[in-house]
Amino acid sequence: MLKRTNAIVLKTFPFGEADLIVTHLTYDFGLINTFAKSPRKIKSRFGSSLEPLTCSKISFWGKEETRLPRLTQSDIILPFQALRERWECFLKVSEIVELTVNFLPEHEANKKIFKLLLNTLKSMEKDCNVPLDIILYKIRFLHFIGYAPRLDGCGRCGKAGFSFYIAHGSVICEKCATGMNPHIKLSPGSVKLYESLSKWDDSIIGRIKPSRDLLSELSNMINDHIIYTLSRPLRSNAFHKLNPAG
Question: Which of 55, 147, 153, 231 is found 20 to 30 A from 1 (Cα to Cα)?
Fold first, then answer.
């Protein structure tokens, strides 16, 4: 059965001398892996459409139960070439791509996440040094897939709290936290910022100008939450440590 959809290339893996396994995030079918025949040859019909981050209109062939359908066509919609050409930009985008690949199950459509990734790439192509882009993606992505940390009230009684307990994925108030394991102390400002980024429209978020300290505090908490949920750190984090200026 031939299927068509819009898709963003997340990663590729060489297969044999000239073939590729391509991981796409698609609008209609979610995360899928496809087999691309001979795209690494000079005269390949796929051209540059299988470069990471490229958004294309793709066609692929395979039965419903086929684990690796064959990619038959890929026509570029948005190349996002500028993000690939700037190393510091590509490192930042790699983090959200890795997050997406690791959390999403295959073959489950999530149009909100597709739109979120596409809009984030568009924004970062204009300026990849906007600190809010990455943390906004992480927060909304976690909300869409049901893994968002809870900061709006104690995970046990619902009262306000500012101590985040990673193992519980929630803030816990002082009364309920008696005798519990170590926690991350959050400021009221970071909790408010988190709620704003979770709920506000993009047009309003563009007006937010949080301090570097506030962003760092919230970002560190989100990253620790992701590491605990995945049971391991993202590999892209290691590159950030080697390239702190990026």
Answer: 55
